[in-house]
Specification:
Elements lengths: L1 E6 L4 E8 L7 E11 L1 H4 L7 H22 L14 H10 L4 H11 L9 E7 L3 H18 L3 E5 H7 L3 E3 L4 E4 L6 E6 L4 E8 L2 E7 L5 H11 L6 H15 L24 H13 L5 H30 L3 E5 L6 H14 L4 E3 L3 H4 L4 H13 L24
Helix pairs in contact: 2-4, 2-5, 3-5, 6-13, 7-8, 7-9, 7-10, 8-10, 10-11
The structure holds 5'-O-[(R)-(carboxyoxy)(hydroxy)phosphoryl]adenosine and zinc ion (ZN).
């Protein structure tokens, strides 16, 4: 059983192909995992520009598919290029009505290749930037139509949440750990900040969320104020680490708030901390390297303490057996260390798991993983191939877990 997964919710065009384990076995084979990032392109804007993301996805997705098929050893060229049948061409014209450029690249590529062994097509239906999501959704519809294979819509946040469960034994082999429930997950990315309670597989309740900016967004905005490039998370983290390595105490001159840390709920607010960075920087006459490192150190500490404090509070209330971190910000090594250390000290019985670095930022392997678990355990989420129903499949930028 081969599953092909597509991810285009933000600024990464990604396709992964995995072979799902047969009954009784728990080994997943990662046949390919291709990610093409648009970070460089969005950098001058200091954030992701949705229409630019859409254009890039349209341009890159067929080459990404080609690489993914080649890596998986599933790319076979026809002896001679042959045009697609009329009825297929007519269908594709409708599917790619809004992506004329992708339409042309798709047709050219598909008249050259034979049908690969793919059994189901998983794709990110949401949440994310609607114009970007639509490219992946229409591409998935087109693949389903041409290959006559079922579709499997996946929630991007479920992908992030389940990503820590994939443990590789070699580059290509992995197993999916079976977590103890209940799970408490902290999903922290450029677009989301959520605490999710899961009492069993596929059952999710969002118990806390941000009231304004997402954590990743706060990192990106604070970085911009400090004159650091996009994406700001890794930059701030590097600067903060530099300060920590000096082994000196903070001067105490650059204190930032820990917003909502004492509120009784599990919600967050990160826009105030970014504004506090702005006011602080405006008052610093000469922002030297040393000062900037200290401000980054304070910023990272403030965010980490806020996240940790809410997760600790939620742990007391909900008694989870497992804590999972997911999303781009979860790759932050200080946040990871503080979570591991604090839980070991306060709740040693709770297992804390984080995704491998490559799987914390956006990728299609996590979509393949969530898709494979749905395929095996939740048949109703699989949309059997039906050429007439394909047109009813839509992206949903706000799809909640
Ligand atoms: O999950 P992701 O790749 O995309 C979304 O779904 O949003 O997350 C991207 C976010 C960006 O805001 C980026 O600055 C942040 O994750 N990020 C980090 C780190 N690496 C990426 N934030 C803090 N520390 C990091 N090491
Ligand atoms: Zn994401």
């Amino acid at each position: 059983m081969n599953i092909l997964a597509i991810e285009t919710s933000c600024d990464e065009t990604a396709i992964s192909i995995i072979e799902i384990p047969h009954a009784n076995k728990n080994t997943t084979t990662i046949l390919s995992n291709v990610v093409v990032s648009q970070i460089e392109l969005h950098r001058p804007y200091g954030g992701v520009f949705p229409m630019l993301a859409k254009r890039e996805h349209s341009k890159n997705i067929v080459p990404v598919l080609e690489t993914a098929l080649r890596d998986a050893d599933l790319l076979k060229l026809k002896k001679k290029t042959s045009p697609l049948p009329e009825n297929i061409l007519a269908g594709l014209k409708k599917i790619f009505e809004r992506e004329p450029e992708l339409h042309d690249i798709f047709i050219e590529f598909f008249s050259k290749i034979t049908t690969p062994k793919i059994d189901v097509i998983a794709f990110t239906r949401g949440p994310g930037l609607a114009p970007a999501l639509w490219v992946g959704v229409n591409f998935a519809r087109a693949l389903s139509f041409v290959w006559e294979k079922p579709l499997l819509p996946v929630n991007h946040m479920e992908g992030h949440m389940l990503s820590p469960l994939l443990k590789r034994t070699t580059e290509k082999k992995a197993f999916i750990t079976k977590p103890e429930y209940p799970i408490l997950a902290l999903l922290i990315s450029g677009g989301h900040t959520e605490i999710v309670l899961s009492k069993k597989l596929f059952s999710y309740k969002v118990i806390g969320t941000t009231r304004d900016d997402a954590v990743g967004e706060a990192f990106d905005k604070a970085a911009r104020i400090l004159g650091l490039p996009y994406p700001g998370g890794p930059e701030i983290s590097r600067q903060a680490d530099r300060f920590r390595k000096k082994g000196i105490a903070a001067s105490g001159k650059y204190k930032l708030p820990r917003p909502m840390i004492h509120s009784d709920d599990f919600d967050f607010s990160f826009s105030g901390i970014k504004t506090a960075v702005l006011y602080m920087v405006q008052k610093i006459p000469n922002l030297t390297e040393d000062i900037r490192e200290e401000v980054c150190f304070e910023f990272e500490n403030a965010v980490t303490e806020t996240l940790l404090s809410k997760m600790m509070k939620a742990t007391i209330k909900y008694n989870p057996q497992t804590v999972l971190l997911g999303g781009g910000v979860a790759s932050n090594s200080h946040i990871q260390k503080e979570f591991h250390d604090s839980f070991k000290k306060e709740f040693p019985e709770v297992s804390v798991s984080v995704p491998e670095k490559e799987l914390s930022t956006d990728n299609a392997l996590m979509i393949a993983l969530a898709g494979s678990l749905r395929f095996l355990g939740d048949k109703k989420s699989v949309l059997a191939f039906d050429s007439r129903k394909i047109k009813n499949i839509k992206a949903d930028g706000n799809w909640s877990l």
